[in-house]
């Protein structure tokens, strides 16, 4: 199987504290990988290492089959950060302007967008059902709509792999479900590989085909089809947890589980 | 009505005013949206130190302002590295250095009236060399902003994603810092060091209330800035007021009027909707 990400014996820490110890993992093409774990377990740090925003103390990371140190095809990697929806709401940018900005490597340094770039923006917005909002200001959209625009911004480059860091934090339950369903559809229909850090256990169990848990004992892989028991969650988080996954574990509007 | 243009000093004032009115909001849009308005203040105060150094050494004061402002802008980046989590410390350190240096050097300036003219601006007293310098540097700033339009937009909106999209973020930020320093130092002649940051902010703040996109914000803030400058020069000439202060006050009045207009029109809209639904 085609491995899009390979991490071997990764170590990372701040000052004298080691946060990630001897982490190894892989992500296959078409995977929907969920990363869960307690606050401070290093989930977002692991994403940042895979995006080369941080440099590890030791270990090896390869992206799309290439050592991350020599990796240049960043436009094929999408990233939606935790801070995406907490951007400055009064920033006077339209949906179209925000999505088009990510076409930088296609347009080129010091150059202006052409008709083809406008069409690419329209298609990306159409894919997330936001094409009718192209001329709207970002600040006038709801949290769920903004998140869909950020997804379009990533999709405009036709990425092979997208990273999401708690993409549904701060948005209501309905918009949250819509974002998960959209991601599941893109994963299922386009074969887009998704790596998502989340605290939303119910939704990630419903949509991911693989789940890794970062905890005090390092990295554990869990098969989402086996469900999450109280014992498993307690083992991941390192303390006793009462598990309530009411209403989660399935999604009425999408077919991710049936498709895989 | 155009009588004032028969005087050479007013022709120069309008030419310099037009150029500075065009470049300040181009830089101001990014400064405001990146929430760096304090940097404008810091650089204007170090420009004053440059002006006094220029006056003391007998060199051109605006040239002194350009050199000091560029050095300070680069200094802010260096100090910021020492306090990565408290970037405002860097701005405060450089601003304090600028004020301290200007205070010490001002004791050596023989003609204090010439220094005062840089505090509140003296656009009508501009020399041929200064006019030439403003023209050249303004062209550099305008061309850079046009060429770097999409790069500046992305770095301002989301620096992290811009880096991943391939934008050379560090280089763009470095060039922008230099452009900010140049813009502020050459603008000290128009409105003075004490109020230059208002010229960076006021047209942009007004445009943000009306514009429906980033592009519109840039264009509208340039148009408003030109309007503030021209009407300020015109009114100050006939009312015998200081041009710098007049330009800034017109900007403040325009911003208050726009805010009031928006509030009233939104209340009227709400009232209409309420009547319709009732």
UniProtKB/TrEMBL annotation, chain A:
Pfam families: ABC_tran. SMART domains: AAA (SM00382). The keyword Transport applies. Keywords: ATP-binding, Nucleotide-binding, Transport. One of its GO terms (molecular function) is ATP binding. Residues 5-241 form the ABC transporter domain. CDD domains: ABC_Metallic_Cations. Belongs to the ABC transporter superfamily. This is Zinc transport system ATP-binding protein.
From TrEMBL, chain B:
Keywords: Membrane, Transmembrane, Transmembrane helix, Transport. It comes from Anaerobacterium chartisolvens. InterPro entries: ABC_BtuC-like (IPR037294), ABC_TroCD (IPR001626). Gene3D superfamilies: ABC transporter involved in vitamin B12 uptake, BtuC. The chain crosses the membrane at residues 12-33, 53-76, 88-109, 129-149, 170-188, 194-211, 218-237, 243-261. This is Zinc transport system permease protein. It is a multi-pass membrane protein. Its main location: membrane. The keyword Transmembrane applies. It holds the Pfam family ABC-3. It is found in: Cell membrane; Membrane. The lineage of its organism: Bacteria, Bacillati, Bacillota, Clostridia, Eubacteriales.
């Amino acid at each position: 199987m085609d491995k899009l990400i390979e991490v071997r014996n990764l170590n990372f820490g701040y000052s004298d504290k080691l946060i990630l110890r001897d982490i190894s993992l892989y992500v296959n093409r078409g995977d929907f990988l969920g990363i869960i774990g307690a606050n401070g377990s290093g989930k977002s740090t692991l994403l940042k290492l895979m995006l080369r925003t941080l440099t590890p103390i030791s270990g090896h990371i390869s992206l799309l089959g290439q050592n991350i140190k020599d990796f240049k095809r960043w436009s094929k990697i999408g990233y939606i950060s935790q801070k995406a929806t907490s951007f400055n709401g009064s920033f006077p940018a339209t949906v179209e302007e925000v999505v088009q900005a990510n076409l930088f490597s296609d347009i080129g340094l010091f150059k202006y967008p052409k008709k083809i770039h406008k069409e690419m923006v329209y298609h990306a917005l159409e894919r997330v059902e936001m094409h009718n909002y192209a001329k709207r200001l970002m600040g006038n959209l709801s949290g769920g709509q903004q998140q869909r625009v950020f997804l379009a911004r990533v999709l405009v480059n036709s990425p092979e792999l997208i990273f999401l860091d708690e993409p549904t934090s701060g948005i209501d339950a309905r918009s949250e479900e819509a974002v998960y369903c959209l991601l599941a559809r893109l994963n299922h229909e386009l074969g887009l590989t998704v790596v998502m850090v989340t605290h939303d256990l119910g939704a990630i169990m419903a949509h991911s085909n693989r789940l890794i848990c970062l905890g005090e004992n390092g990295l554990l892989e869990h098969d989402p089809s086996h469900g999450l028991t109280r014992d498993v969650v307690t083992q991941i988080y390192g303390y006793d947890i009462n598990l309530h996954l009411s209403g989660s574990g399935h999604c009425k509007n999408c077919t991710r589980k049936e498709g895989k | 009505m155009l009588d004032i243009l028969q005087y050479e000093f007013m022709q120069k004032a309008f030419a310099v005013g037009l150029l500075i009115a065009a470049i300040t909001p181009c830089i101001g849009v990014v400064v405001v949206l990146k929430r760096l308005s304090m940097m404008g203040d810091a650089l204007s105060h170090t420009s004053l130190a440059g002006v006094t150094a220029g006056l003391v050494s007998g060199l051109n004061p605006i040239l002194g302002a350009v050199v000091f402002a560029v050095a300070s802008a680069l200094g802010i980046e260096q100090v910021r590295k020492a306090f990565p989590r408290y970037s405002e410390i860097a701005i405060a350190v450089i601003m304090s250095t600028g004020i301290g240096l200007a205070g010490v050097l001002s004791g050596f300036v023989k003609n204090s009236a010439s220094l005062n003219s840089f505090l509140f601006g003296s656009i009508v007293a501009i020399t041929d060399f200064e006019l030439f310098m403003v023209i050249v540097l303004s062209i550099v700033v305008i061309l850079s902003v046009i060429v770097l339009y999409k790069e500046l937009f992305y770095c301002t909106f989301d620096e992290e994603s811009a880096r991943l999209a391939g934008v050379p973020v560090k280089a763009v930020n470095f060039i922008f810092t230099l452009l900010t320093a140049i813009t502020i130092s050459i603008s000290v002649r128009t409105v003075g060091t004490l109020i230059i940051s208002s010229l960076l902010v006021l047209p942009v703040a007004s445009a943000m209330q009306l514009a429906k996109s980033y592009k519109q914000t840039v264009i509208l803030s340039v148009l408003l800035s030109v309007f503030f400058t021209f009407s300020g020069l015109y009114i100050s000439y006939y009312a015998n007021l200081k041009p710098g202060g007049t330009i800034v006050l017109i900007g403040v009045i325009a911003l208050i009027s726009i805010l009031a207009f928006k509030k009233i029109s939104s209340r009227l809209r709400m009232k209409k909707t309420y009547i319709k639904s009732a």
